[in-house]
Amino acid sequence: MEDILIVTIGVPTIIFMIIVAPIWLILHYKSKKQVSQGLSEDEYMSLQELSNKAEKMADRIQTLEAILDAESPDWRNKA
């Protein structure tokens, strides 16, 4: 009975420790390293460009709302 228990639990555990665990640890620490390095230069430039576009869009929206407020003061209540 003990031999079956050792084979049933021991063999999968040993296989896990020899094959799966090292691969898991390598991939885990590799992803941690990538996260800690931060943004690449291309990613930073893309983020900066998106930020600039968002600011321009916000300015345009404010301008459009100011025009609508002047021409039709209760346009906000119609929605």
From TrEMBL:
GO biological process: phage shock; regulation of DNA-templated transcription
NCBIfam families: phageshock_pspB, PRK09458.1
Keywords for the protein's UniProt record, in alphabetical order: Membrane, Transmembrane, Transmembrane helix
Native source organism of the sequence: Aliiglaciecola lipolytica E3
InterPro entries xrefs: Phageshock_PspB (IPR009554)
UniProt keyword annotation of Flavoprotein present: no
Name by which UniProt lists this protein: Phage shock protein B
Membrane-spanning intervals of the chain: 6-27
Pfam family, one: PspB
